[in-house]
Design brief:
The protein is built from six helices and seven strands. The chain has 191 residues and is an alpha+beta fold. The strands form two sheets. It has a five-stranded mixed β-sheet.
Length: 191
């Protein structure tokens, strides 16, 4: 029940941010782009509702779901949002909780891409290290705010990620929000 509650907390948070972005497109009279964003949002929400929060998905499926989310953001930011994926083939078959990367990528968009006139880049990395899966979401934004301890996790997304991992993996994982332009770094048992 706790895991389901944590997983479902993400949906309203993401939905609120995306609807604000679509509202901005409408206010800027970018109706065609807003319509495309609504269609992409619909695809992403269908995916989130179809996924059992107790079931793990392959990293390949997780990345495909993130691409649904990112195509919505790409409509909003255009060339200002640069994406790069560097994921080993073996890592693509590892199992992860569904929508694990979404809050990390959303934070990277919010804090690295959105506030900069030039935009920014987001890099997703994945590799297998022994029996562990190492994931990282990095951006070229300003890093953590001054006065924040790395990994303090004051936001809903980071806190939720931390709690989901604790429920799923107990102490057999590592999650860190780093200040060297990484939105999050995860080390999970490869299952």
């Amino acid at each position: 029940a706790q895991l389901k509650m944590l997983r479902y907390q993400l949906n309203p948070h993401f939905l609120f941010n995306t609807l604000n972005a679509i509202s901005t497109l409408i206010l800027d009279s970018e109706n065609r782009t807003a319509n495309q964003a609504v269609m992409r949002l619909s695809e992403f929400l269908r995916y989130t509702l179809d996924q059992d929060p107790m079931k793990k998905v392959t990293l390949r499926q997780e990345i495909e779901a993130m691409n649904l989310y990112l195509t919505t953001e790409k409509l909003r930011f255009g060339d200002r949002l640069k994406l790069e994926f560097s994921v080993e083939e073996r890592a693509l078959e590892a199992l992860v909780p569904s929508l694990l990367l979404q809050p990390l990528i959303e934070n990277a968009v919010k804090y690295a891409v959105s506030p900069s006139e030039q935009g920014g880049s987001i890099r997703v990395e994945g590799r297998v290290r022994g029996v562990m899966l190492e994931l990282a979401v990095a951006d070229d934004g300003p890093g953590l705010h001054t006065g924040s301890a790395p990994g303090a996790g004051r936001g809903v997304g980071l806190r939720n990620t931390r709690e989901r991992l604790a429920v799923l993996y107990d102490d057999k994982h590592r999650f860190a929000a780093l200040d060297n332009n990484q939105a999050g770094q995860l080390l999970l048992p490869e299952l």
